[in-house]
Design brief:
This protein is an all-beta fold. 35% of the residues are buried. The protein starts with 22 loop residues before the first strand and ends with a strand. The chain has one domain. The strands form two sheets. It has a six-stranded mixed barrel. A hairpin with a 4-residue loop joins strand 7 and strand 8. It is built from no helices and ten strands.
Length: 143
């Protein structure tokens, strides 16, 4: 479902200005951040979202719905793209050409990232986990 700008949530309990779950901005390219991040939303009947730019990791133990976060979970920039929790998101580390599937389990403000991977999940992309890890990447899913 795509919601027009006037139907978006103004904020949520975390102040992220996230869209309602299962929604995204109208079709188009959304550019932001110092890393030239782009989230592209298609408007055709076989809709898809592709985010290209910087990926990061996060270490929160509990998600937006008080769910326990674990390896394999990820978060998207909820103000632009907020797929349903449980959506499978394909993430590619473009430097190493390694792809892994993660599960949407939280929302983030992501001021300079397209995707946030929970803690040690970045190891599934060929990276060494630290308290903060960053990589060039891409994410995608169909809706």
């Amino acid at each position: 479902m795509i919601l027009p700008k006037e139907n978006r949530l103004s904020s949520d309990v975390y102040g992220l200005n996230a869209l309602p779950h299962g929604t995204r901005n109208p079709a188009g390219d959304y550019r932001y951040g110092a890393s030239n991040n782009v989230i592209s939303i298609s408007g055709d009947k076989h809709g898809s979202v592709i985010g290209t730019g910087r990926g990061t990791n996060f270490t929160d133990e509990q998600g937006e719905n008080e769910n326990t976060l674990r390896r394999g979970d990820c978060t998207t920039k909820g103000a632009i793209d907020n797929p349903e929790f449980g959506t499978i998101i394909r993430v590619r580390n473009t430097d190493r050409d390694i792809v892994h599937e993660f599960t949407k389990a939280d929302n983030g403000s992501l001021p300079d990232a397209i995707i946030d991977i929970w803690k040690t999940g970045v190891e599934d992309l060929g990276l060494t986990w630290h308290s903060y890890t960053s990589f060039l990447g891409r994410y995608s899913y169909n809706f």
